[in-house]
Amino acid sequence: MDEKPFREPALALNRIYTRTGDQGETRLVGGQRVPKDELRLECYGTVDELNSHVGLAATLSEAPELAGLRKSLIRIQHEPFNLGSILATLPADVGPQQPRVTEAGILQLEREIDAMNEDLPGLKSFVLPGGCALNAQLHVCRTVCRRAERLVVALDRESKAEAVNIRYLNRLSDAFFVQSRWASARSGAAEVLWQPNQPKASE
C-alpha cells in the first residue's frame, strides 16, 4: 500500500526574531511552552545539528566520482527535518499526515548501504576518521547521529516515541560509516586503521 503524502509546510518566516524565547522557553508543535533544556528539545536540536553536518558533507561531495553519494546526502537532509517534526510534537498531538521518517526510508538506507559495501574491502581493524576531509566529515555525521539516537532512546523511556525513529537513526549512522569508507575508496584516499600498539610519540 502506498504511503500517503506528508502535509506540506504552512510557514511564513517573514520575521526571524520574536523575543518569545528570551526567557528560556519555546513552543512545541502542539502549542505547549516548555523549557529549552528539556529532553525533547535536546533530541530535535541534536537532529538539527546532524543535518548541518550532513549539509557540509554534501558540499564536500561535488566531485563527479562522488555524484551518487551527493545525491544520497541531499535526500537524507530532508529526513532528519521530518524526524524533527515528530520529535517537536507530543505523541497525542501528532497528525496523520505530519512529516516523519518511515520504514521506506530505512529500506532505502539499507539498499544504499549494501550497494556501497559491495565495492569495499573487508575490514580487519577499526577505522579512524581521516584520510580525506569528506571521510572525516561523514564520521562527524555518524557520531552526532549516534548521540541523537541515544537521546531519542532516553525520550522513548520518558514519553513513548515511535519505534521507527530509533531504527531510522540506527540505520542512518551505519550508512554514514559505509559512506565514509566508500568516499575514501572513490577519492583514492587510504583508510586510517586503528593500531592499538602504535608507539607513542616521544615527549
Structure, described:
The chain is mainly α. Helix content is 53%, strand content 5%. It contains 5 helices and 4 strands. It has helices spanning 39-59, 67-87, 103-117, 133-158, 163-187; strands at residues 25-27, 33-35, 127-128, 192-193. The strands form 2 sheets. It has a two-stranded antiparallel ribbon with strand order 1-2. It has a two-stranded antiparallel sheet with strand order 3-4. A hairpin with a 5-residue loop joins strand 1 and strand 2 (33-35). Helix 4 runs antiparallel to helix 5 (163-187). It is globular and about 55 Å long. The chain starts with 24 loop residues before the first strand and ends in a 10-residue tail after the last strand. The mean pLDDT is 84.
Measured as a percent range, the helix fraction is 40-55%
User: Per the principal axes of the C-alpha atoms, what is the gross shape?
Assistant: globular
Secondary structure class reads: mainly alpha
Number of helices: 5
Low-pLDDT stretches are none
Rounded radius of gyration (Å): 19 Å
Q: Strand-residue fraction?
A: under 5%
Structure summary:
The protein has 203 residues and is mainly alpha-helical. It is built from 5 helices and 4 strands; from the N terminus they run ββαααβααβ.
Task: Set out the fold topology.
Blueprint: E1 25-27, E2 33-35, H1 39-59, H2 67-87, H3 103-117, E3 127-128, H4 133-158, H5 163-187, E4 192-193
Helix pairs in contact: 1-2, 1-4, 3-5, 4-5
Characteristics:
two-stranded antiparallel ribbon; 203 residues; 4 strands; globular; mainly alpha
